[in-house]
Design brief:
The protein has about 325 residues and is of the alpha/beta class. The protein is built from 11 helices and 13 strands. Keywords: ATP-binding, Nucleotide-binding, Transport.
């Protein structure tokens, strides 16, 4: 990918929504009809990034942070208030036919499959929309169904499929036209652990086999850690971080986790001089220690405490992200 031109470009992407304010009373309803008041919701504010062909990029953020709105702008479903975007050489909100052939959007809480019909019928409908010849259609369905372990489920009504099987079928339908850019919004939402692993493995293999570019949002840190070397972090509509996953830990977690197995139980007060006590149960303890004082603190722990085993780790990614999102950001007023 060295020297390649970006396939996804976002420059100062911004989306504001103007919503009416209404009081919960009869008088408030009357006032609402006579003189409406409005509030501006800043869903996305000045987001800029570039993605190279073949990259798998994780997009992290809490509910309402602006992830889905950003994806909708990049797929042309929503016009930005200001800013520019190019995806596969096209301006998304023009919704040109050539553009739609190059992208797909999968949302974990939405479905395109027809509920009472076999999944194969929906696939045939998509093949007709994208003008895929019959021979090529059969070849692609066979390849994708094999990758998804879905061969025996194609002729069952969608309503009889499990949640995991339905998600696999949704992915098959969305990828039938072999898009260059995949926008995946919570593709493992609500799935059990085994189904999550299967979907992750499929996305990884699809990216390896076809060189597709993937922008993936997820609340499950395991999805991001398994698939993405690069992450974007968005909070309150603003992009906080764009870089390597390891760099995210270094920037937002200026501490390391020290796990101890003690020779005998100790009270929490005995551990406080060495770091923040995150957990203490019997002889097992977890401490958070500032990175710059790690060597010094570990030496003190080994010298002063009855330690049977000691392990130093990066803090769990979930905890790091939670700390980021718990810190409110200043938002400029219009």
């Amino acid at each position: 990918m060295a020297g390649a031109s970006p396939i996804v470009v976002a420059e100062d992407l911004t989306r504001h929504y103007r919503v009416a304010l209404k009081e919960d009373s009869l008088l408030g309803t009357l006032r609402h009809f006579l003189r409406r008041r409005y509030q501006t919701i800043r869903a996305v504010e000045g987001v800029s990034f570039r993605i190279l062909p073949g990259e798998v990029v994780g997009f992290l953020g809490p509910n309402g942070a602006g992830k889905t709105t950003t994806l909708k702008m990049l797929t042309g479903l929503v016009h930005p208030t200001r800013g520019k975007a190019l995806v596969a050489g096209h301006v998304p909100w023009r919704r040109e036919k050539a553009f739609l052939r190059k992208i797909t959007l999968v949302m974990g809480n939405k479905q395109q499959l027809i509920w009472d019909l076999p999944a194969m019928d929906s696939f045939r409908l998509n093949a007709a929309i994208y003008e895929i010849p019959e021979g090529e259609f059969r070849k692609r369905v066979g390849e994708l169904a094999e990758m998804l372990s879905l061969e025996k489920k194609l002729h069952q009504p969608v309503r009889k499929l499990s949640l995991g099987e339905r998600m696999k079928a949704e992915l098959l339908a969305a990828l039938l036209h072999r898009p260059e850019v995949l926008f995946l919004d919570e593709p493992t939402l609500g799935l059990d652990v085994n189904a999550q692993v299967a979907v992750r493995e499929f996305i990884r293999e699809y990216n390896r086999r076809y060189g597709a570019t993937v922008l993936l949002t997820s609340h499950y840190m395991a999805d991001i850690a398994a698939l993405s070397e690069r992450v974007l972090v968005i909070h309150q509509g603003r992009l906080l971080y764009d870089g390597a996953l390891e760099g995210l830990l270094a920037r937002f977690a200026p501490y390391r986790e020290v796990r101890l197995t003690l020779g005998s139980p100790l009270p929490q007060e005995a551990l406080l001089p060495f770091g923040e006590v995150r957990a203490l149960e019997g002889r097992e303890a977890r401490l958070l220690v500032p990175r710059e004082r790690l060597t010094e603190r570990v030496a003190e722990i080994l010298k002063r405490l009855p330690v049977e085993d000691l392990e130093v780790r990066e803090p769990p990614l979930e905890e790091v992200i939670a700390k980021v999102f718990q810190s409110p950001l200043p938002v400029e007023e219009a």
